[in-house]
Amino acid sequence: AQKITQTQPGMFVQEKEAVTLDCTYDTSDPSYGLFWYKQPSSGEMIFLIYQGSYDQQNATEGRYSLNFQKARKSANLVISASQLGDSAMYFCAMREVAGGTSYGKLTFGQGTILTVHP
Amino acid sequence: NAGVTQTPKFQVLKTGQSMTLQCAQDMNHEYMSWYRQDPGMGLRLIHYSVGAGITDQGEVPNGYNVSRSTTEDFPLRLLSAAPSQTSVYFCASSYGKGSGELFFGEGSRLTVL
Q1: Residue pLDDT, tens place only, B13-60
Q2: Any CB–CB contact under 8 A between A102 and chain B?
Q3: Are the Cβ atoms of B43 and A47 closer than 8 angstroms?
Q4: Which of A19, A68, A70, B19 has its CA 20 to 30 A from that of A62?
């Protein structure tokens, strides 16, 4: 079964508008972390934001926020005031803590391609 | 500050050839890992290491070998390349605390003919 599901292969947004990229996850581990990475057309992987399963508040980093709904097992990325430079592939990923060593081991979703129109 | 450095960035192999993708990090991270990226499948973990001398398999280890003789280096070896190994490969490293955010290299695009 997919542990990380990104159901939107592609999304379009107008410049300066907000956009939400969906991510649902599946785990029985009570302790886990959720990440979002951006991959522009140049190919590098850029870390955007992190949410721990025990964090009480939704994570925010500048124009990025993570809408964490634990009961629904969703961790959607919200980008406010979209810019042309936000056009990229976005990956949701999870690190499960149970079972011992988990650092370095992320499970990734399939990705969502975001296109920002001027 | 170099971060994670991968070489080569591009490589074309013939079926059956062997090669090594090099990865080095200068952040003194304990944890290092290799992922492959294929269209529609995200990134999948090949092998990872929790420290010098310790490695383990990830989700898709077949056809790949790794070793970790130093904290800094984590090479990925393809012993007999197959067309199914055509992919983009990423090396990553992380601290063993906090969020465990991965720091990625720039990627290596491998084509096996």
Answers
A1: 999 999 999 999 999 999 999 999 998 889 999 999 999 999 999 999
A2: yes
A3: no
A4: A70
pLDDT tens digits for A5-43? 999 999 999 999 999 999 999 998 889 999 999 999 999
Nearest 5°: the CA angle A68, A71, A75 is 25
Q: Which residues of B9-38 are buried (b: 16+ CB within 10 A; e: fewer)?
A: eebebeeeeebebebbbeeebbbbbbbbbe
Residues 6+ apart with CB under 8 A from A23: A4, A5, A6, A34, A36, A74, A75, A76, A77, A92, A109
The pair of three-digit structure tokens given for residue A86, joined into one six-digit string = 């936000």
